[in-house]
Amino acid sequence: METTRPLTTTELSVLGLLAFGEASGYELARGAERSIGYMWAPSRSHIYKVLPRLVELGCATCREVTQQGRPDKAVYRITRHGRAVLRAWVDDVDPDPDGGNAVFLMKIFFGFVAGPDSALRQLDAYRAVVERHLSEFEAMERALPPEEPVHSRIALLHGIARARAALDWADAARVLLERERERERELAGAAARAAR
Fold first, then answer.
1. What is the predicted pLDDT for the residue at 38?
2. The pTM is what?
């Protein structure tokens, strides 16, 4: 049964992990720890709860795998519908997503399902948020009275440093994504010429 109800960020993150290939709940939890766990950290129990919902929604399939000397395991695979749902989420630019900046980063991480242009749009939206925060932090720093405790200033400087580092990262990421976009265009052009 396919449904159009919006998926939660955790459901979408698990769906994104399934886009890498068929996996069990355990394998997905391990994969999350090594990848999206730095941006969005669904617990192992939450992953196990989400998987049957993705199957019910038509976004994934499940099959049992018999194992020798161990309990059978369920493995999940993203469906065509699930890939379309994931692609639509990656394509959608929300300037202020529930879940904050981690959502921009996850959409960039899963950008392979939609292509470099989608990732570039997410990167631009993220950059706009960071620029706004940096501007606010710098205005706050200029307005600090001389008697402001040093601890407040230190915390503010941390925010400024992180924002500037994020902007440097965004500039470097843009170069890589534009390079990838050009590579994909060249491959598409070569494939079109070969098909003639």
1. 84
2. 0.85
